[in-house]
UniProtKB/TrEMBL annotation:
Organism: Streptomyces phaeoluteigriseus
PANTHER family per record: NAD KINASE 2, MITOCHONDRIAL, PTHR13158
MF terms in GO: NAD+ kinase activity
Superkingdom assignment: Bacteria
GO biological process: NAD+ metabolic process
Species classification: Bacteria, Bacillati, Actinomycetota, Actinomycetes, Kitasatosporales
Name the UniProt record assigns to this protein: Inorganic polyphosphate kinase
SUPFAM superfamilies in the record: NAD kinase/diacylglycerol kinase-like
């Protein structure tokens, strides 16, 4: 007998909850903000909207389904099952946060604050949840990026992967590309960014704009990545000939570490990073898995 689907509601602690946890009570948090010319009511109202959205989505889950909730900070300890339907209630970034932990489960993005969120990944309103859960067949498969180290460590991201020094200080490495006959350039920079079409609305786009937009941004479903070296430093020992490019579905970018410690992290979550030491190699390219986003 097959298991009934399980709805996994993914959410994050609200700004209001974080404030009250830090200051102890609503009144103390309100005083702290008012002494700095801010009103807590704006933050409290966003908190109420988020809670109403969670309640509305929960009520829309079919009675025959199982359900559970997971907070963003617990994602790395949560075990997703093949029959899960993941419902992200919050901001676009929360979809990216959960993507790396999935293996083909459909994701429904619910926007708790329309107009404040771009709505690139959280495309639906709480009132739409019932109809979306009843028919999760219409999915868009979004390209992801992966980094694989020579010691089998692996990192997957929906938007982008950053490779560099912790704290974004100077990183030293050799950068090579498939098809270049093994030629690699020694570089010193503040890191390398490799992003997808979904990431082209965020960090990658800002770098792309600074570089004059010479490369065509990929679409979210396109099996193509863009990569940029940030602030490459020319010296007698380091070059700047390779500072930007694109990777096809089969293309790979390789970094050989020449610093005591470099890290690779995805989608801005530096706390969940792959650590690399001198002499290690890491290869970055299009991931074979996709994020299956409903609607």
């Amino acid at each position: 007998m097959s298991l009934a689907p399980r709805a996994v509601l993914v959410h994050r602690t609200t700004e209001y909850e974080e404030l009250v946890a830090r200051h102890g009570t609503h009144g103390q948090a309100a005083f702290f903000l008012s002494s700095r010319g801010r009103d807590i009511e704006e933050i409290a109202e966003r908190h109420r909207r988020t809670r109403r959205a969670l309640a509305e989505v929960t009520a829309a889950i079919p009675l025959t389904w199982r359900q559970t909730r997971v907070e963003r900070r617990d994602l790395d300890r949560f075990l997703f099952a093949p029959e899960d339907v993941v419902v992200v209630v919050g901001q676009d970034g929360l979809v990216a946060n959960v993507a790396k932990y999935l293996a083909g489960q459909p994701v429904v993005g619910i926007d708790t604050d329309p107009g404040r969120n771009p709505g690139v990944l959280v495309r639906h309103r709480p009132a739409d949840a019932g109809a979306l859960l009843a028919a999760t067949a219409g999915v868009e498969e979004l390209t992801m990026v992966e980094a694989v180290a020579d010691d089998t460590q692996r990192l997957v991201a929906l938007n982008e992967i950053y490779l560099g020094a912790a704290g974004h200080q100077t990183a030293r490495y050799r950068l090579g590309l498939d098809g270049d006959g093994g030629v690699a350039e020694a570089q010193a920079s503040s890191g390398v960014l490799v992003g997808t079409g979904t990431g082209a609305t965020g960090w990658i786009r800002s770098v792309w704009q600074e570089r004059g937009g010479g490369l065509r941004l990929p679409a979210p479903t396109e099996e193509r990545l863009l990569w940029y070296v940030r602030e490459a430093w020319p010296s007698p020992a380091t070059g700047t000939a390779r500072v930007a490019g694109e990777l096809s579905a089969a293309g790979r970018l390789t970094l050989t570490v020449e610093s005591e410690r470099l890290i690779a992290f995805g989608d801005g979550i530096e706390s969940d990073a792959v650590e690399l030491t001198w002499g290690q190699r890491v290869t970055v390219g299009v991931c074979g898995e996709r994020l299956r986003l409903v609607g």
